[in-house]
Design brief:
Layout lengths: L2 H6 L13 H11 L1 H19 L2 H4 L11 H13 L6 E6 L7 H15 L4 E6 L16 E8 L3 H11 L5 E3 L2 E6 L1 H35 L2 H26 L8 H29 L4 H28 L7 H32 L28 H11 L1 H16 L7 E2 L11 H12 L8 E6 L8 H11 L4 E6 L2 E4 L2 E5 L12 E8 L6 H12 L8 E3 L1 H35 L3 H26 L4 H4 L8 E2 L2 H31 L2 H30 L5 H33 L8 H10 L6
Parallel strand pairs: 6-13
Antiparallel strand pairs: 1-3, 1-5, 2-3, 4-5, 7-11, 7-12, 8-9, 8-11, 9-10
Length: 755
């Protein structure tokens, strides 16, 4: 038997009859079947790659409003029964002369009729086909609009948009045709998102590898975490496609899948790989090193993944499929990252053994004379720093807390809105056309408020409809009301009903279109929706829809679910950390510290993206004086989970030392020294991955990348490096106090690394 075989088959080194923990048995089982595990992984990836390669094409582009929201129900009825409502596409026709010139009239009329004949188009109207309607003409008479409504759900609208628009836009017969509207904006957002993903991966991958090389100073050791990260991302993309077969999943969930997948998988792999190397250095053979690593570091990884998954699962409490999509993505990628770190990585390390340090780069560092550092965690930068903090804990606590509150203060002036064409880069065609319309057209023909009136017959002589439309037209900010009985401006009928039009007629009733001055997603637009909803209508089942109503309903849905989400996160986090630490005070500390770390994130979000400061640092974008209402929610859940990730890493080593010594100060210093460098490296890697997404041309993705990167950096430095040791020093042995009955409960049901 060779020396290598002896090492691999060595006995576990524990007394006969001693009981191993479940995770340790898993570690030994993985060691025994290491080749089978790796072959199964390779086969699974081979099947997953072709299956998940088209995931971005399959996912949904909507889901931003709740399915039971009033605006959503109104739009569904308009789409299904009336084949009408707000236009999906707006074509802007720019003319060399007046839009009323003979050539312009012919071109505009022909183009409108051509669009009306396109498959999937249910309605096409323009300045020219509506008898020279002034609201569809630019103020300088050098441009006019064509409004197009498409049939089908969001995916069918998307397919029709990508098929129709390329053949229409551009220079045609001396006229310039540009496209915008909600469908075209979504199409350009999807295209931009695909380009951003490729660029982010090209930036993040080599930088991550470089950091791993600096941490491990070996090529093989540096590549193993990247392999686990790739496995987690591929698996999560497949899971998103599977979820999409059952429920709508937003295409934007792909961004968070890749960012979280790479970041967490590498974090977990760092922890596993570092512990494995420690065990080998202490004299353990490969089999025992794997068992101990999975029992200790593996337990921490599993628990950390559970806390992140719980935080992400809170998004399921919101009624919007957009936010729920990120829960599906987050839970899937966290579970796969943990599985890869606890099963796949140990199998790979079982094969590599001591060769994990092969292809060492130590030669590159020989010129640097480095003193030997004891391996017992009794010295080193983080040990010395933690003692400095714990010598004067109150000043450190007060200074750091004050700093975070000051940085977070801009959030007090936060304004929440909805995303439109301005999420695109300034030179995006859909934005350029939309901005031209904002600057040159008084009324918002492309974003009407719609009122569905079930049970009210659409008759040209229906006095109830006429009276209702008249009252609507008298509301401040309303420029025109179109109904089955005609058009109304400021209480006067300005156009009779068109007897040939079936636009407002359906077996279920009728509907009314309100054209207004305020932009749909402005505060004034929301106020107008409230006034429309307060006005008595001919139908008791009246439904108000449109973009402005969607924002109003989104605020209501978010505000209604938010308290329950916060309560869910607080309670589950407290219970999990209690089971992990056997402490009542440490879970409370963790929740408070996480909330403080998020103040900097939210303050930066408002300071940069709402107020427009430091744009040169994060790349150019369009300032709209508000932030998307869903972004703070998403950032909170993700950042809270990642912050808890680092909290668990540190607490695991602090608790390990405290169980041996009972010394609170020494345990904090020892744990920080053991994990400080690792958490710093993990935070830098996650920040690099997230900052790579900050290069996106889409403002929400840029905001998400910058905000989460700031959260990670603040958490790994100010929170874990200063606030945590200061708090644990001030609380002293109270950190670990439990009443007797609760101690007995934890001894029975708590989590422990003991065999």
């Amino acid at each position: 038997m060779t020396a290598d075989q002896k090492e691999r088959e060595a006995p576990p080194g524990i007394a006969k009859g001693a009981k191993r923990s479940l995770l340790e048995r898993i570690g030994h089982g993985v060691f025994k079947r290491r080749i089978l595990v790796l072959v199964a992984v390779v086969v699974a990836i081979g099947l997953a790659l072709p299956f998940g390669s088209d995931v971005t094409e399959r996912l949904s582009e909507g889901g931003i409003t709740a399915t039971n929201a009033e605006a959503t129900r109104a739009d569904d009825i308009l789409n299904k029964d009336f084949k009408g409502g707000a236009p999906h596409l707006v074509f802007l026709v720019k003319t060399p002369g007046s839009v009323e010139d003979e050539a312009a009239v012919k071109f505009g009329t022909d183009l409108t009729q051509k669009l009306a004949r396109e498959s999937g188009v249910v309605q096409a109207e323009s300045f020219w086909t509506l008898g020279g309607a002034p609201p569809l003409r630019g103020e300088d008479s050098r441009s006019a609009m064509i409004l197009v409504r498409l049939a089908g759900d969001e995916n069918e609208v998307s397919k029709a948009t990508t098929r129709i628009v390329p053949g229409i836009v551009g220079q045609r017969e001396g006229f310039t045709v540009e496209a915008t509207g909600v469908a075209q904006v979504r199409a350009e957002v999807n295209k931009q998102s695909d380009e951003d993903l490729v660029r982010a991966e090209l930036i993040a991958a080599p930088l991550t590898l470089l950091i791993l090389l600096l941490v491990f100073r070996g090529v093989i050791a540096a590549l193993t975490p990247l392999a686990v990260g790739g496995l987690a991302v591929v698996g999560a993309l497949v899971m998103l496609k599977v979820f999409n077969m059952m429920v709508p999943v937003s295409v934007f969930a792909v961004n968070i899948t890749i960012a979280l997948g790479l970041g967490l998988a590498i974090d977990y792999s760092l922890f596993i790989l570092t512990r494995f190397r420690e065990e080998l250095a202490s004299g353990s053979d490969v089999r025992e090193a794997i068992g101990t690593t999975v029992r200790t570091a593996g337990r921490t990884v599993v628990f950390s993944a559970l806390t992140v998954a719980v935080s992400m699962s809170s998004l399921l409490l919101f009624p919007m499929n957009f936010l729920r999509s990120f829960a599906y993505a987050g839970i899937s990628v966290v579970a796969l990252a943990a599985l890869g770190a606890v099963v796949v990585l140990p199998a790979l390390l079982s094969v590599l053994g001591r060769k994990v340090d092969a292809l060492s780069l130590q030669g590159l560092f020989r010129s640097r004379k480095k003193k030997a550092t004891p391996t017992d965690g009794s010295s080193g930068f983080w040990h010395r720093w933690s003692l400095i903090v714990m010598k004067r804990p109150l000043p450190f606590f007060l200074v750091v807390t004050a700093l975070l509150l000051v940085v977070g203060s801009p959030f007090l002036g936060a304004k929440f809105g909805e995303s439109d064409d301005r999420v695109l880069p300034p030179d995006a065609p859909a934005h350029v056309a939309a901005q031209y319309i904002r600057d040159n057209y008084a009324s918002k023909e492309d974003s009407p408020i719609t009122v569905v009136l079930p049970g009210v017959p659409a008759q040209a002589d229906n006095t109830k409809i006429s009276d209702y439309a008249t009252k609507l037209s008298q509301i401040g900010g309303v420029t025109r009301v179109d109904a089955a009985t005609g058009s109304y401006i400021k209480g006067e009928q300005v156009a009779p009903a068109d007897p040939s039009s079936k636009r407002f007629d359906a077996p279920v009733g009728t509907w009314v279109s309100i054209i207004s001055e305020p932009e749909a997603y402005s505060p004034q637009g929301g106020d107008l929706v409230a006034k429309v909803r307060d006005l008595a209508s001919p139908s008791t089942d009246r439904l108000v829809g449109g973009q402005a109503a969607q924002l109003v309903d989104a605020r209501k849905n978010v505000g209604g679910a938010l308290p329950w989400v916060l309560l869910f996160i607080a309670v589950t986090t407290f219970v999990l950390l209690f089971l992990f630490t056997g402490s009542l005070l440490i879970p409370l500390q963790a929740i408070v510290m996480n909330l403080l770390s998020l103040t900097a994130t939210f303050g930066a979000m408002v300071f940069i993206f709402q107020e427009g400061h430091l744009r040169w640092l994060v790349g150019d974008f369009i300032v709209t004086d508000n932030v998307n209402i869903r972004m703070p929610i998403l950032m909170f859940c993700v950042a809270f989970g990642v912050s808890m990730d680092y909290q668990v890493f540190m607490l695991s080593r602090i608790k390990e030392h405290h169980e041996l010594t009972g010394d609170n100060v020494a345990s904090v210093a020892w744990g920080l020294e053991r994990v400080g460098r690792l958490v710093t490296a993990a935070a830098v890697i996650v920040a690099v991955v997230l900052f790579a997404f900050a290069t996106s041309g889409l403002t929400p993705v840029k905001l998400l990348g910058v905000g989460l990167a700031i959260a990670v950096i603040v958490d790994a430095t100010l929170i874990r490096g200063a606030l945590m040791p200061a708090l644990m020093r001030m609380c002293g042995n109270g950190n670990w106090w439990l009443p007797g009955w609760l101690r007995a409960f934890h001894n029975k049901f708590g989590l422990s690394e003991a065999r």
